[in-house]
Amino acid sequence: MRAYVINEWIHPSKLTLLSDAPEPEARLDEVIVEIYSAALNFFDILQVQGKYQVKPPFPFVLGAEFAGKIAKDSPIPEGCPFRPGDRVFGSAQGSFADKVACKWKAVNPLPDNLTFDEGAGLYITWPTSYEALVGRAQLKPGESVLVNAAAGGVGIAAVQLAKALGAKVIAAAGSQAKLDICTKYGGADYTVNYTRPDWQKEVLKITGGKGVDVVYDPVGRIGDALKCIAFKGRALVIGFAAGAIEKLPLNLVLLKNVTVMGTHWGLYTSKEPERIPVVWDALLDLLASGRIKPVVYSKVYSLDEVASGLRALEKRETWGKAIVRVKNEDRKASAKL
Ligand SMILES: NC(=O)c1ccc[n+]([C@@H]2O[C@H](COP(=O)([O-])OP(=O)(O)OC[C@H]3O[C@@H](n4cnc5c(N)ncnc54)[C@H](OP(=O)(O)O)[C@@H]3O)[C@@H](O)[C@H]2O)c1
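^ thats the input. predicted complex w/ NAP below
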């Protein structure tokens, strides 16, 4: 099968697609998924260079998120509700390949109204944004939310979810083109270019001088955003896309009675596994009803273009989820399975 097999730490520009990589072997609690689409993540860039906290032993296959079908010859572990041919999405090391072995509990059914391209980037970004806004910040209808990097993977999900929850959404991004994406695909109520000086004044004006109730930040710009947060506002730390781990002057937290809270979705697997199906039930309902819809970057990469996709991600060119099409879906054929 085709796969990006990694035997040593390399720069992503040096990635080579093998055509004769060994097929994955399923362990006791795993199924084999035939991959149709995979999602690109910033941590893939770090992982292939040995700069990410997850360092699988060599050799390993790059890629972490996918959508596809349970393979015809997949084992079906006890308790696993899936059958060969079922359309699924999930997460496992090794998704830049034709097939991946995956714990069946890390796989969800793909709603019929979604394509594999739309499903491939769901597994990490959407529950992160949902849990941050609902479980952590307890966002209420009518409240205002500032979403930083709002056209990015987790950002556009946060914009759509906050809208679905009845909040007023102010989307912040680094260019007019990205702000347009936030309006077109996210339904943002207002947009602000946060590369402009004094952009916080625009946010204060939009909120009638009060400031926003919730800040959602995947960039490392909480400190900037505290200039336009409301009294008793909640600030969500999601990530540090800008590179540096942000350090916060706590006087700003004190001055407005602010609560700063982190959300690390991956930790729920070990710390609060019972929360995971609750979040997915809510998300799958919202997805099936069409109230939220995954956003796929306009250039869909082929499997042999993973390096250029990762380069675009690194250069901040992409919006929504950047996707790699591993093989085309034949919906008529899949309906017969
Ligand atoms: N907490 C969790 O559980 C969790 C889950 C998933 C992801 N994350 C983290 O969230 C962050 C964003 O992930 P994502 O999937 O949304 O990424 P993404 O799609 O690549 O979007 C990141 C956005 O950050 C902005 N940005 C600002 N400075 C940047 C820089 N120096 N380099 C690159 N981007 C920069 C860019 O938007 P503008 O051009 O508009 O500024 C970019 O589009 C990452 O740090 C990721 O690790 C955390």
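Residues 134 and 140 are 9 Å apart (CA to CA).
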